[in-house]
Design a protein that fits this description.
By secondary structure, this protein is of the alpha/beta class. It is built from 25 helices and 23 strands.
């Protein structure tokens, strides 16, 4: 019976306990799984491993050269009979390692000494230890490079060694308990020899066009490379294959979305946008004008817009989105703005109403007013509103009197019904899952246009941008009046006394007549803001790294500490999501009016809050926030033409992921550069699913930052294939692969995002 990639792995391993280590330990079920179990790195056999620092108990995988090897006879204390030990000195870069092997047989001891003769090189795996001032490699497993004839190989296997022919590169595989690199290497080698049918999903013409090797060649190159170029060529093949599959899925998704059809929003029924533009007290930036035209063109299409609007904090995204909403209202439709928190929803409602001025209807009447004045209701809907408070807005939303609706998750509830929802604007889209956005777009009779906004693209957003699922509009200019923000890292692990200077600096700013934010990651004790991200860091092996500080700062405790200590006499208030809605609104209004000197808050002030007189922000335990959050938070200062100051207070130690993150934020205010740092640390997330971010990535070979060029090539190839035939009838194997990807992806994402 022919062995194929779909054959069970036992076809090449047999039904042994050894095979169980592959199936249960590594999760490899088929021969194809085994062949796609790629080395994670390669050792150059011409170069000895560099081991500048050794640590007791550390597991080492080193490429070393035998310096000397001698057999010594001694008496076995238990039996009183002669016994033998082989003492071998190994050179590994700048380190010398001692290896000792015990044997009852002189023949085996002499054989081992012969295999480990001076000048022999090999790969040695074991735990580092020290004895009498010398470093040792305890109970080492090894593969030595030499004559791999059958007799020698069998002898080596009996003595927990392997003998391999010397090649330029030695593959290092991901392992599990009980398996060594050469176990996997030999299993893969045998599988490559016996597999007969290696079907390639990439058509030959496509491979030639983009210069990628065939599948069988790529498998040989990645498992048994002669030089580094072989590895790179094979990796390019597998990354291109994965990128092409994803691009075909996303390309078919875009075409399916266009085929759904929607109501074109061309304006013309009313003239709110024209009236709004006439009332603007300033001139739009060139970027705002250009993107405004892009949105008008997209809204006028008979298929749904699916666009990302990204721009620096304070670049005027809300104004651009409002003009798009007015365009929809002018077309007889409604627009909904979904915000992640009540504070932000209230802020959006206030700012939109203020920007509209007399164009925002008041009272119970709506629509066309006396004279030529057109107005529309701007409604607010949040979860804390009472049934009585919600009755009027719900009615006006259902009848269409409310042209613009601003709200939180409350907009997703079943009782919220729209008359003609034409545009959904999602602010800070990373705070919402795909299903939540879909629940709002499902309220429209026909698919509405979708505009998502963000100031710092989170990893998944960057990934989707590169992969092309969203059309992208980018605001790069800052409006007049935005001032520079200076960001300083206050490292308390290096300088504990600096915290006193932080509070002195706060008092100095208040004495100048300015206001200050203090941000803490907790409300009280271990209670965090609902939906708030608590940054987790991991080491290279995926283990979570504990916070450098035990108890994290909390709003309640910090407020009490500061009002009775360093900030005594100042007008200090606190703000977090657990407070009653009326108290939150009252506090924000008082801070905006200048009645509060210092506002101590959680990340509820992360986005949308606009207080021009606030010039300074102190972020406590800043290492517990992500790059995107830190950039958003500091964007709350410097909004009134006054220079801003952001102090990142942290106990994170140098060299940790948290410290790297803080250093990056302190070094630049470029949100798009920071998004790449964020992506590098947190990875792409689930590109086709609902997961927004995190350490695990659904991508196998691809990495968005590293492989941008490959991804763009794959997008070009996918568009060419889909342009000819969206069903890929001419490439049935590729069509089957795309179908598998679509089935395994999140159905909610593919159907509703």
């Amino acid at each position: 019976m022919a062995i194929t990639l779909e054959s069970p792995i036992e076809a090449v391993l047999g039904n042994s306990k050894h095979a169980t280590k592959f199936t249960k330990g590594l999760g490899l079920r088929t021969v194809g799984d085994l062949l796609y179990h790629f080395p994670r790195r390669y050792l150059r056999t011409a170069d000895l491993s560099q081991t500048p620092q050794l640590h007791e108990g550390e597991m080492l995988t080193v490429l070393g050269e035998v310096v000397r090897s001698v057999v010594r006879q001694h008496t076995d204390r238990r039996t009183g009979r002669p016994a033998y030990r082989v003492e071998t000195q190994l050179k590994a870069g700048t380190a010398d390692l001692q290896l000792t092997f015990f044997s009852k047989s002189q023949r085996i001891a002499e054989w081992r000494r012969g295999v480990l003769a001076p000048g022999v090189r090999g790969v040695f795996v074991g735990k580092a230890g020290s004895f009498r001032g010398e470093w040792q490699l305890a109970n080492p497993q090894m593969v030595v490079f030499g004559d791999d004839d059958a007799e020698n190989a069998a002898e080596a296997a009996d003595n927990q060694m392997a003998v391999e022919e010397l090649t330029e590169l030695f593959p290092i595989y991901p392992l599990t308990a009980g398996l060594q690199h050469w176990d996997v290497m030999r299993a893969v080698r045998f599988a490559r020899q016996v597999v007969e049918d290696v079907t390639d999903v990439l058509p030959e013409q496509l491979r030639e066009t983009y210069d990628v090797p065939g599948l069988r060649d790529a498998l040989d190159l990645i498992h048994a490379p002669h030089e580094l170029k072989d590895v790179q060529r094979a990796q390019h093949r597998f990354r291109f294959e994965e990128a092409l599959g994803l691009q075909l899925v996303l390309g078919r998704r875009r075409r399916a979305l266009q085929a759904l059809g929607t109501t074109a929003r061309t304006g013309g029924v009313h003239h709110l946008l024209e009236a709004f533009d006439e009332r603007l007290p300033f001139t739009l930036t060139k970027g705002q004008e250009t993107i405004g035209e892009e949105l008008e063109t997209a809204l006028a299409q008979p298929h749904p817009m699916n666009r990302l609007l990204q721009g620096e904090v304070g670049s005027g995204k809300t104004l651009v989105a409002l003009r798009a909403m007015l365009r929809v209202v002018d077309s007889g439709g409604q627009a909904a703005l979904l915000a992640p928190t009540e504070v932000l929803a209230q802020q959006h409602h206030r700012s939109i109403t203020a920007m509209l001025g007399d164009l925002a209807a008041s009272g119970l009447a709506g629509g066309l007013f006396a004279g030529d004045q057109e107005q529309t209701h701007v409604e607010l809907l949040t979860g804390s509103m009472t049934k009585t408070q919600r009755k009027g807005p719900l009615s006006r939303i259902a009848t269409g009197e409310a042209g613009i609706v601003v709200g939180t998750h409350a907009l997703l509830q079943d009782q919220v019904m729209f008359d003609d929802l034409g545009l959904v604007v999602v602010d800070e889209q990373h705070r919402f899952g795909v299903e939540q956005r879909a629940a709002l777009t499902d309220k429209a009779g026909t698919p509405p246009h979708l505009l998502v906004m963000t100031a710092t693209p989170i990893p998944r957003t960057v990934a989707m941008t590169v992969f092309g699922d969203l059309e992208v509009s980018t605001l790069t200019e800052l409006p007049v009046g935005r001032a520079e923000i200076q960001t300083n890292l206050v490292s308390l692990v290096d300088h504990p006394a600096w915290i006193a200077r932080v509070w002195e600096r706060v008092k100095e700013e208040v004495e100048k007549g300015h206001q200050v934010y203090v941000v803490a990651p907790r409300i009280s004790g271990d209670e965090s803001e609902q939906g708030e991200s608590d940054q987790r860091d991991f080491d290279a092996d995926g283990n979570e790294v504990a916070s450098a500080k035990g108890q994290l700062s909390a709003v309640d405790e910090v407020t009490e500490e500061l009002t009775t200590g360093p900030l005594r006499g100042l007008n200090v208030a606190k703000l977090h999501g657990k407070l009653p809605a009326e108290e939150k609104e009252r506090t924000m209004s008082a801070f905006a009016a200048g009645d509060i000197d210092v506002l101590i808050a959680t990340t509820v002030i992360e986005v949308g809050v606009d207080v021009p007189n606030a010039t300074t922000m102190v972020i406590l335990d800043a290492d517990r926030f992500g790059v995107s959050q830190l950039h958003q938070l500091r964007g709350r200062v410097g909004r009134g033409g006054l220079h801003g100051l952001c102090l990142l207070v942290s106990h994170a130690e140098a060299g940790t992921p948290a410290r790297t993150r803080l250093d990056a934020v302190a070094e630049t205010t470029d949100g798009f550069a920071l998004s790449r740092v964020d992506l590098d640390q947190r990875r792409e997330g689930d590109v086709l699913g609902a997961s927004q971010s995190g350490r695990r990535s659904s991508l196998e070979s691809l990495r968005v930052l590293r492989d941008e060029e490959t991804i763009l090539q794959a997008r070009e190839a996918a568009e060419a294939l889909l342009e000819k035939d969206v069903d890929l009838a001419a490439a049935p194997l590729l069509a089957e692969r795309v179908g598998e990807i679509e089935e395994s992806a999140s159905a909610d994402y593919l159907e509703k995002s």
